[in-house]
Input
Amino acid sequence: MRFLPELPLLRRELTELANRRRTYVIRVIGAVIILLVLFLAYSRAMQTMLMVRGGLQASWQQLLGIGGDIFLFLAPTLFYSIQILMPALCCAAVSAEKENNTIGTLLLTRLSPLTIVLEKLGSRLVPMMTLLLITFPVLAYVFSLGGVDTNMLIATLWLLFCECLLFSSIALLCSVWFPTTVGAFIWSYVLIGIFAAFSLSLNFRTFVPSALWNQMVADPRGWAIVNAYLADPINTDASEWLPAWIRGVFDVNPSLAIFLSGYPWMLVVCQSVMSLLISVSCLFLACLLLVPRAFVSNSSLLLKVFGRVDAFFKALNERTTGGVELIADSNSLPGSDPVAWRERAKKSLGKARYLFRILVVLEVPTLFICMFTAILSSQQEFRQLYVLLGLIWVLAILVIGMKGATLFSSERARETIEPLLASPMKAVDMVRQKVSGMSRLLIVMATPILTVNFTLFCLRIQTSSLLSSTNFRAVAYLAFSVVNAFGLLYLVAWIATGIGLKIHSQTKAVLAATSAIALWAVTPFVFLMFSQMSWSFGVGVAVTVSGVCLLTWLVFCVWSRPEASVVVSGTVGVLAGLGLFSVIIMVYYADPNMYVAQLLQSLSPASLVVGTESYLLDVSYRRADVNGFFVGTDRFPWLLLCCCRLLVYGVLLLGVVYVVRRFSPIMLNRLESREISAVSSPSVSSRVPVLEGATQT
Amino acid sequence: MSPTYDSSTVPAISVSELTHSFKGHQALNQVSFAVMPQTLHGFVGPNGAGKTTTLKAICTLLKPNWGEVSVFGHSVRADPISVREKIGFMPDHFSMYRQMTVFEYLDFFAAAYGLNLGQRDKVIDDVLTLTDMDGRRNDLISGLSRGMQQRVSLARVLVHDPDLLLLDEPASGLDPRARIELMEILRALRAMGKTIFISSHILTELAELCDSVTIIDRGQIKFSGPMDALLDADDETPRFSLRLGQPPENAVELLQSVDGVVTAEQPEYGSPGEFDLELEAGRDSNLVLQSLIGLGIPILSFSQRRKQLNQAFMDLTTRGVRT
Output
């Protein structure tokens, strides 16, 4: 008798997962990152402990209890990992079956939609759980240091599971709805972002497990009040921490609260019911939609929407004006740049009319938000406006990165690239035309950024200073903003295009491009964090990070076996980058000052934007002595730094453009140079059979 | 009728010792063959035999590990740009830019092949007329049937007037009518002096269409040469088909008694008047026919049976899955 269901789909998915090399590579990288975070958390906790509990003479007994600090640093990292990885893991679950035309055969089996959805969900939860499982020894070590309540640990583990379930359910729903993995990937993150923003802005913290963890577990007051409430529900006010329905239950039945007083984690479980309900709703919806959405056509959703909008306005125009068109559509043809023409005339993110609509959709809310946040946050130095600026930057970089990564990979996926590659057009020209086809999109994405910059400029600069002869700062700020916006987006476009040239799958190209850009933005700050620790620890971690970077590059080389020239240039690039980091860190340790720190930060694109804002504000730095006491302020040469950064990014842009253009024929797997192979055979006439006599082997 | 060549004629395609492997898997092993200009050359082989790899090497989309490929004397390694100008490649899938009209699609590729604006309209009109797609020039490609899309694809291949057409499975997925029409277009193109290199699985049509053929199996060439040479090979004992008007009951015995006939038998699925005769090697078939007439049975037809291409294909290729 069979007690356990057979779960064939889950078994197939897990077998495939086990057969992939990248599964193990990802696990190793995940484990290394978790260990690094642990080192970082441990180091910070040690520094705090040494400062607070007795300086350098602290004994080992005083280490006891620092586990809590480390835990509160480690747990959010796990939540962030889930938020980043889970949608990426789940978005291909069903859409890949659609892309491979295997969904039909799957639906013809005896597996019901519910079984398919649940087994797909299981197949994605298992790898995430294995990643989380890696952290268990680390958590055990942290637990042994003391300071972590058992209930806190159980509550955290439960909320981590709920977070996995919630994010995977939303991504699975997107995977069921969208015909392509790229569509599912983008919309998974967008929907999750909207959902999180909606829940948090309305203070529905129980909807999002990580927010619940922040409220209930991370905040010591919350945890203490919940414990106190369970001990004495009548006299303790926990209205800020517990929802009304839970308090209502305990008011009716106080003995239940007393029963639960030994298990406060159960209260967290109760509160997570809402997020579980949302997960179940998403899964239910996915079951309902699986069959109707199984064979949807692979046409662009945006194009369809715009097509309908066009039809509506055309009909409206016919009715109202009898079909008068002030500016008629020009029926343009490719001209001399056919690839660029196709990008501009035939793509939803290329047509001027469609892009104008996108611009309106982006710009109008940006203007309103600018206006309101400027008014509301005037007391807080327009902090919200900077948050908005950051969000717009992230959106713009994501859109440009994804567009750039799919320029060639989408052609490969649709198998339309071969006729183009068989034409005499050079690979360099194809790449150039493809990127130039994105120019309108760059303008559209840069416009909201410049709007926020201009708003900040108007708010920060006094009208009188504009009229005075010292308005150089205003002009320079605006010029820096424009160059930053276009330069950085253009650089992102080229990097993503280069990655898309190399990686054939659309999903992998988008994932690789976004990961590469995120790593580029974050790594300098991580190095800076390490450099601010003690010498031995900082150097140790920096060496580890460098080792991991080199190891990753080596794994990539062994795995994808690129051309020798790519291996050499890539290795030189990685070594040069690490060398630069090392030099800057050494210089910082020799003389820790703000100039070197800024230099290190300059390697991240984020610093380009932050630096320009600092120039507008003319931020001065607090100078401290060796004991950390304030001894005065330093005026910082922001203008010089902004100019240097622009110069560095200009050189970087030229370098990236050169590398992508230089290696484009290799990456497109196309013969282009006039090289004569050393291994070419002897004269053709002596070996090739002629038609008059047949050759038979 | 295929044209004749002297030894100085440069082959349209010349492949010599072409060898390529993908991650340890030997896709091509010392492949050598040649295709003469203005011929229709069939390229036949089982799945995974190396047909598409060879085609990609010819059309400059693959850098082979070893060997030399040249098109009209231009090496694909040394001069890929010139090769691309001379070829029109149609891959084995129907992937096109679906959001373009037929005209826009052809204009796009005309621009990609560097045709100037003045030439394009004329060229596109010509190729649309040739492929009988004139009336659909403003239709979206997404709205066309598979057969129509294949015609547009063929029109795209012709847009820069290449001397050599490389067609990978052009008839796959087409209905019989579309297939016959495609073959008619290919015949017309050959008559215009194009060299056509066609990879296909539809052997009966290839046998009718092609002047020469190359058979490849497991990365090795099994035969390359004129179609006649393939079909007449090993034909030491000639076989004939005989059709009689009113065959007597003992027709088989009578036919076997004729001088020069080795065996006579009725084909398993043939009509009652049909017979297969195997003659003695070197025997004059006219003399045998005279003897048959002498039997006094009305003869409707008497013709030599040639080996079918699929029979030749089966004889040359190895059964089983490639490992």
Q: What stands out?
A: Chain B touches chain A through 68 residues (CB under 8 Å). Residues 176-191 of chain B form the longest helix (16 residues).
